[in-house]
Each structure stands twice: as C-alpha cells, then as structure tokens.
Amino acid sequence: MHSLDDAGPRNHRIRALLFAAGIAAAAAFACGDPAEPGTSGTGGSGPCTPACEGLECGPDGCGGVCGTCAAGEACDAGQCVACQPECSGKECGDDGCGGTCGECPGGTTCVDGACACEPQCEGRTCGDDACGGSCGECADGEVCSDEGTCGPACEPQCDGKTCGDDGCGGLCGECAAGEVCREGNCGPACLPQCDGKVCGDDGCGGSCGECADAELCVAGQCVCQPDCAGKACGDDGCGGTCGTCSGQEVCQDGTCECVPACTDRACGDDGCGGTCGTCPDGEQCNDLSGTCVVTCTPSCDDKVCGSDGCGGTCGDCGDGTACQDGECVCVPACQGKQCGDDGCGGSCGTCTGGLTCDSSGSCVCVPQCAGRECGDDGCGGVCGTCGANETCDAGGSCVAAAPTLSGDVWPIIDANCVSCHGPGEGGLTMGFSASSFRSATVGVPSAGCAGETRIVAGNSAASYLVKKLKGTAACGEQMPYGSPPLPAADIQKIEAWIDAGAQSN
Ligand code: HEC
User: Fold this and answer.
1) Distance (Å, whole) CA 368 – CA 378
2) Which residue among 405, 452, 481 has the greatest number of ligand 1 atoms within 8 angstroms of its CB, and so is best to mutate?
3) pLDDT grade for 424, boundaries at 50, 70 and 90
4) 438 occurs within a structural domain
5) HEC secondary structure over 162-190
C-alpha cells in the first residue's frame, strides 16, 4: 500500500517528458521531407527554411503556406488577386473560386458541370435503370421481373392437351374446322346425347341406334309394337294377347272358333249349334248326359207329387208341406218352440206351472195385475208400489197405514198437551216421551172422574181421553183446556191407534 501511494506523481512526470520529445521529433521530420513542393533549393538536407519573401499566399516551400487570401480572392503566383467565378456553360460544380455553380436536384448528380440522371440499379441485375438505360440483360429463356431480377419465363402447360390455353397467354394447339376445344381436346362441335338411349335422335342430327322391325322408338327406348290387325285373339307379337276366346271356343290363326264337345256324348247339343248325333227309334236323347235312353211313359195316376217313374216329377209341394206317397202332407213346424200351434193343426207342447204360451211359442209367466195396484205380480215382480204412510193389502190395493204411537199420536200430544200435562205439572202427567205418555194413560184410571180409564186398549169409545177430546166426558172440560178442539183427523188418528190395541209402535 505504501509504495502505490508514491507511484502516482512519479508516472505523471514520465508522461510529460515523453510528450515533449514527440513534438520535437515531428518538427524534425517535417523539415526534411524531400517530396514537398516549393522546398528551398538550399540543399537536400538540414532544416527547411520557408521562402515567403514577397509572397502573400501560396506554399512556403516547407509544406506550409505564406498566407491565405480573403474571401472573393484567389492566390495567383503568391499574390492575392480578385477571383472571377467561372460558371459559363455549367449548372453545377466548382466555380473556381471555392464556391459552386449550382446544386443538382434529387435523383441526379453533377457530371462535368451538368446535372445527369443517376441510374437506379442497386439490388437489380436487369430492367430499367430509371434513366432510360438498363441495369442488365437476362439470359435466353429468362425474363426480368418487376423487382429487377432474372427468372425463368412462363412455361406453357400443354401436357395431355391438343388445344386451348397454355397458361402463358398462348395456345396448345388449334382445332380443325367444325371442331371445338373442350377441356384441352378437340372434338366435334355437337356432342351426341345418347346417355340411357338405345335409339332416336342424338341431338346432333344423328341417331342413338335403330330399333328392330315391329319395334317403335319411344323416349329413347325400343318398345314392341303390338300387331293385332285382323286378329280377335292370340299373340300380339309383344308377349301380350289380341283377345281371349270365350267358353268352348279356341283361337285359330287369330280367330275364335267353336270346338264341338261330343267326347262321351252320342247325342244332343254339341255346344256349337250342331248335334253330337241322333237316337234310334224307341229311344230319346237325355240332353244332360248325352246318352240315348229307352223312352219312358210318366205315370202320375192319383199322385200330386213325387217321381213320375221316368226321372221327372208329378208335382211340387208348397211351403210347410212334404211329399208322402204321392200326396202333399203338412210338416209340423216346432223347431225352437215349447208350445203353441205346430202349423198343421196340432200343438208343439203345453205350458205348466202357471206359465202361458206366447206368440213365439215360448212358455212365459204373465204378470197378474188386473185390478191390483200393488203387491206380488205372480212372476217374481210387483204390480206397483204404494206411497208413504200406505200399505198394500191382500187385494192389491194401497191403503192408509194404521196410525202409530211414535209417528202419529205422540206428535199430536207433544204439540198440544204437554204444556199443561208435562213433567212437573200436577194431576195427569203425560210425561216427556211417547213411552211415558203411553204408560201414564193406557189402563190407568182417571184421577178426576171416578170409574173412567184414561185409555182402554182396543176400545176408543170407552177411553176417557177420547171423551175429553170430543167434549163428551162426564167430568171436567174439553181438552185441550182453554183452546179450540183438535182437528177431527187428529182425533181419528188417536182413536184408530187405540182401536188397533194402543200398541207401542
Ligand atoms: C191449558 C192447560 C191444559 C191443556 C193444554 C190440556 N189440559 Fe187436559 N187438563 C187440564 C186440567 C186443568 C185438567 C183437570 C180438569 C179436567 O179434568 O177438566 C185436565 C184434565 C185432563 C184429563 C183428565 C185426567 C184424569 O185423570 O182425570 C185428560 C185425559 C186430559 N186433561 C187430556 C188432555 C189432552 C189429551 C190434552 C191435549 C189435547 C190436554 N188435556 C190439554 C189442563 C189442560
């Protein structure tokens, strides 16, 4: 550390010495340069002495100058003289006095005092140089691109093509007259259209094919033309028929002809308007079988029906009758019938158990309701139903039902009497229900009239309560006390209930 601190100032001193020596050496070299013009001719060696005596400017002979001239002056033989700019015939370049005769516009450069176009060929090997010249020519078969480079010219694409565009603005070939180019190949101007057609016009004046005789071309197909001229039957030449023969006829050369049917027949109609033969005397032809049979004499003596002995009949019987021994007899019609007329004056059966025979011959139960409005009809049903408060009596009539304690009598008592004869009242206590009313009255002696019984079951006339309602009692007042008597119908109901036994019903 200590030694480095001392090193700094010592180094500075060394550098300063070297710098001074360098300047001295440079000065020595300058003076000795033999090539410098104007070098004084005092000798080829030793220090150079500038020779400027009488000179204002120009070289001093030692590489320096004797002085510089003011602006607008030129140095002429060591004297400063006024300078005349020389620009005649020049539009640019040095004017000879340190100035310029003019600047050239962009894209041009000064050549011999004139502005000339500057060729633009940087990065280009061919094409226009922008000055009316060329940057270079391309080899044969090459073309110059817009970018100024040489490349292969367009290659015509004519593989497999005999005509049409070659892709480079040319043609691959020409077609003959009457032909046109389609997809690179020459062909007839008209293309025959025969897809799916075997005959007929091909659209170009030609034909797609010819049909055989007896065939017609229909929609491009050969179809058979039936030929039935003068024929009523048989093959039409196209797999069809001109007609069929009927019955016993057969087709012969287009005509239906009848064939006599006489196989196994000796006589009778042959089916074609003729005969299969005639029978000998004593025999006649059975047209059905076609055989000759010995003549038969029908015998119908005393017979109205049945066989005549010769295969015929002596007569037919009417509906519902059958032939029996030559006579028509009635046939009983009892199918599906249990009873009733058999159509022949007899019976199909009789009904039992109270059932009646109806028009269709069935035994049925007939409801017995004549003079009856209710009750059993004898067939499991009823002749009618009675209204409320009615019952059906044995004669089938609806009659008023006998009054009951709960349904008829008690409602009357409850509404008209218990206000005075209810619970808590003295004397007769008719209670507060139908049953307490009954037990307080039926067979109970009167409290206020000796010898009387309030209600005598089965005898309304002897009952004291009825007498009190009618006002015929020997004691006291007519009930209800202090009010009009009960309606007669109400009194009758109470009487009827008592007469029926004053039951607890
Ligand atoms: C306003 C009060 C009153 C009314 C309502 C009334 N009674 Fe009487 N009833 C009496 C009086 C009071 C007696 C006792 C005097 C008499 O026998 O007349 C009596 C007595 C009787 C007796 C006799 C009793 C016996 O044992 O001697 C009978 C029966 C009777 N009433 C029935 C009826 C009947 C039925 C009715 C309803 C239709 C009725 N009463 C409505 C006040 C009434």
Assistant:
1) 6
2) 481
3) low
4) yes
5) CCCECCCCCECCCCCCCEEEECCEEEECC
Question: How close are the terminal C-alpha atoms of the chain, in Å?
Answer: 154
Say how far apart CA 375 and CA 433 lie, in whole Å: 35
Domain contains 388 = no
Q: Which two structure tokens, joined as six digits, stand for 454?
A: 């309030």
Q: What is the pLDDT of residue 476?
A: 92
* pLDDT value at residue 32: 39
Give the pair of three-digit tokens for residue 240. 């069809």
Total residues found in the chain within this entry: 505
Report the number of distinct structural domains present in the chain.
1
pLDDT in tens, 178-190: 888 888 888 888 8
- Measured from the CB, is residue 471 less than 6 Å from ligand 1? no
- How high does pLDDT run on average in the chain? 83
- Maximum distance among all alpha carbons in the chain? 216
What is the per-residue pLDDT across 449-477, written as a single tens digit (0 to 9) for each?
999 999 999 999 999 999 999 999 999 99
Q: Does ligand 1 come within 6 angstroms of the Cβ of 239?
A: no
Is residue 30 pLDDT above 60, yes or no? Answer: no
Cα–Cα distance between 4 and 98 in angstroms, integer? 58
477 CA: nearest ligand 1 atom: 18
Pocket test for ligand 1, best of 409, 418, 428, 467 (most atoms within 8 A of CB): 428
476: domain range? 402-499
| Residue 424 domain-assigned (yes or no) | yes
- Predicted TM-score (pTM) of this structure: 0.35
Q: Please tell me the residue having the least CA distance from ligand 1 atom 33.
A: 479
The token pair at 305 is 């029906």
For residue 455, what are the β-bridge partners?
A: 442
pLDDT, tens digit (0-9, with 9 covering 90-100), for 215-251: 888 888 888 888 888 888 888 888 888 888 888 888 8
Is the distance from the beta carbon of residue 445 to the nearest atom of ligand 1 less than 6 Å? no
Give, using CA atoms, the residue closest to atom 28 of ligand 1. 465
Q: What DSSP state is assigned to residue 240?
A: S
Tokens (6 digits) for 125: 């090997």
23 within some domain = no
Using the predicted structure, report yes or no on whether residue 11 has a pLDDT greater than 80: no
Per-residue model confidence (pLDDT) at position 480: 95
> CA quadruple 211, 216, 222, 224: dihedral positive or negative?
negative
**CB distance 416 to ligand 1 below 6 Å:** yes
pLDDT of residue 9: 44
